[in-house]
Amino acid sequence: MIEILRDADRIARPWKNGGGVTREIAIWPPASDLEKFDWRVSIAEVREAGPFSRFGNIDRTLMLLKGRLMLTFAERAMELCPDSAPCTFPGDVSCFGAPVDGPVIDLNVMTRRGRAAARVWVVANDSHSVKGKAAILLSRGEIKVRSGELEFHLEPLDALQTGGPCELLVEGSALLIEIE
Asked: In this structure, are 22 and 105 located in the same domain?
């Protein structure tokens, strides 16, 4: 099963801590809330500096889609940009985010420890064998994706969700989130 998740269909919702907005791409199980999901993929807009919401028993992976963000943890600080590697950290630790030179858009992948794990990486003009229980492919620009006889056209920030293992041929640049 493959489902297209259009950027234009996403609804902006306030963050758990009220400090910004997020647009959910996908969540498992479907219609879960923030306390019961196994995994969740979303895009957030960070306009102002502030603490990240804390999520007990959750691992987070963050990638920047636009802008630059300074992340500060108790033991380290780092600046992320769209070319940075994914930043993975426990959702139950203190984290402070500060946009650098303007608003930021980020991809946020959250998995509940013991129930799911995710791996995030950039794919471009290549074939990929998805082996996980699910995968989300988030377009970074206009792309074409083929899986077997099926062909899909995605606009920037549209996503494609698989319901299990499959082969994906990507023409263009995207972020691939594979969930186990």
From this structure: yes
